Amino acid sequence: MSVNGVVVILTALNLEYEAVRDRLTGLAVRRHAAGTRFEVGRIGQSGPRVALGLVGKGNHPAAVLAERAITEFRPAALLFVGVAGGLRPSVALGDVVVASKIYAYHGGTSEDDGLKARPKAWEIPHEADQIAHHVVRAGDWCRDLAAGASPRVHFGAIAAGEVVQDSAVSAQARWIRQHYNDAMAIEMEAAGVAQAGHLNRALPVVVVRGISDHADGSKAVTDGQNWQPRAARHAAAFAAALAQEMTIDSSRRGDGMPGEQGSALMPMKNENRASGNARVGVQAGQIHGHVTIGAGREGPVDLAASIADLRIRLKQACLDGRLDEETYAAAEAELDAAAGCLRDGSAANHGGFLMSLKRLRGLVADVSELAAKLAIIIAAARGIA
């Protein structure tokens, strides 16, 4: 998993989106350059950061927008959350199915003696599977659901195609039973998302589905009984608990054990990106070789020029969609405050200058170029304190 700590959650339907969104706080819009809108927030008040997106129905848009989200956020994991039709009597309405395997069931070849299946499948990554089972055993994921709701969690294959199945006797239903008879649920997006994850260095992808009908001709009845929003809420509750546990587990990756005081160890893999004249000012974790913190050998940093350069980079990040407008406005305000303190030049305002830069660093931490530039400026400012 990435050390970024962001989890992307995608949904196909608005009611699924709202079920996840209800569990997030501090939401801010993030616009992709191609027009896709994500909302970024946290699970609860202090949980992991989540980038939430709506992809619409079908494996093709799911694959395209999953790729877009992966490129935009470089997430620790990608979850697809929503509703599905159940294919087993043992899977009740409202239950949750976690895909241990995903079938793209429309692949095949047409021959004289009939249509032959050409299965394509993706399995859940082992580590993600282990974490999901842990969430089930812990049992806390469903504690805030409606009174009387006690959905079970099943692990099994999910079949993903391009049509809504609402019959137990149609040709497609018979096809599924003949070739994919271990499938517990059927839906329309998992294959696209799984393929996007597979093509991105095996990014962990987990599909979580609440069962809203039985794919047997009763969909109109179950929809009328509001099983879709209920099933979506159940899936969202499990996904939120899973996202939280996955990010906690990722932060412990150093040796798999918490520190002596209960704090998580820092990951031992570090990735720094810088462009233009930016340099990496601070690196934490496992470091080999000589390390210099601060302005480097080139001479002292011109703080005024660095602030002016940072302002240009900040604006460009907003134009590129790497910063949403609200964050950009807040960052500009902190930059103005820092520049004012710098112009004043008094010792009393030096602390204010550093404080504004630290607040600014928190706002732009997700944009590696800006974070690296700020690290250099802060280190230089501390050096002249």
UniProtKB/TrEMBL annotation:
Q: Which residues form the Nucleoside phosphorylase domain?
A: 7-242
Q: A single GO molecular function, which one?
A: adenosylhomocysteine nucleosidase activity
State any GO BP term from the record: L-methionine salvage from S-adenosylmethionine
GO terms under cellular component: cytosol
- Superkingdom classification of source: Bacteria
Which InterPro entries does the UniProt entry name for this protein? Nucleoside_phosphorylase_d, Nucleoside_phosphorylase_sf
What this protein is called in its record is Nucleoside phosphorylase
